[in-house]
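Open question from group meeting: does this chain pack into something compact, or does most of it stay loose? Before anyone orders reagents, we agreed to write out a predicted structure and look at it together. Recording both the input and the output here so the notebook holds the full record.
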Amino acid sequence: MKIQEKFDLTGKVALITGASKGIGLAMATAMGQAGAKVVISSRKQEALDEVANKMRAEGIDVHPIAGIIGNSESMRKLVDEVISKYEAIDILVNNAAINPVFGPVLDTDEAAFDKIMQVNVKGPFELAKMVYPSMVSRGGGSIINISSIGGLTPEAMLGIYSVSKSALISLTKVMAKEWGQVGIRANVICPGLIKTKFSEALWSNEKILNSVMRKQPLNMLAEPEDVAGLALLLGSPAGAFCSGGVYTADGGYTI
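Structure tokens returned:
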């Protein structure tokens, strides 16, 4: 088999959360371009429909479904609709996340803590369990969780977000260890500072941006597409022996 063929996702079904923009959209587009049937999900159907139309114009088989990650009923409906339409889920990308707090841990109230953990940890945990039977029926699958370099080394002013992303890394390793015997691979990507709406408060702040660039060997502000290639590797046969891995896409920031 030629190496290009190992990145082919023809016949596969990929579900990507938080996919109406940013890294999620870039990963969904990459997988669709590689031949996968792509289901994109986020909170707002209108935003999903807009990007889905653009993806279809590129020849991508895409289906947009609004859903609330962290809400068990909403996630169950999401998975059921995907299986009803495509009969299976081969790739799950848990990308949806929130961070309503930018400030010290002492200023983070219990409600914010619970919400962050509900979406960033419990959501991926429940969604992965929901797609498990489908992946087993297909002889395996790939789960890709999107963490952060903050999950490796806590970032100041992003304390509880960092805690949630650290938990997601551990959850990924548990999935890889327990589910490998049925052919399910689980890996986690830890992006650094990427130019997205989600991280705009950081890269639009000249002081913060300069601080990052001083520590980052590659002197560039990455775009969402710079993470998408790594996700394609992990979701495709090219990454068939990759499981339990923690992969950074941070320009060398964590060296």
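Observations to bring back to the group:
The CA atoms of residues 53 and 62 lie 9 Å apart.
The chain has eight helices and seven strands.
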